[in-house]
């Protein structure tokens, strides 16, 4: 058996980041235990100034039980582009999954696309789940 694969998922609780989470759960996670109890605790969330999305926590709870995956959270503050690349290095991720808002060319230039930056600068493979995958959240999508 080889080394366990570490998969990172860029999460800001937006619809596209939820689609990225769902895609990763469906396509990358096979076997592995997710102690989310600590992250779910209100005091922990308040300490970090977070308001975790209930839908995301439920998805993670389900995948931890069904696919026996270990899920951990690490909180970063700052520019998402740089922090995602930092996470790849610090956590020694084997792959990273992020959502794409599907910005047009002008908005992408003005807003500086996070997914484009991460694809170009991360030291591991990056999967970008496009906005059209949002239908997967409703359970309609197929593998």
TrEMBL record:
SUPFAM superfamilies: Adenine nucleotide alpha hydrolases-like
InterPro entries on file: Rossmann-like_a/b/a_fold, Universal_stress_UspA, UspA
Domain UspA: from-to ranges: 7-130
Gene3D superfamilies in the cross-refs: HUPs
PANTHER family xref list: IMP2'P, OS02G0773200 PROTEIN
Protein name: Uncharacterized protein isoform X2
Lineage of the species this protein comes from: Eukaryota, Viridiplantae, Streptophyta, Embryophyta, Tracheophyta
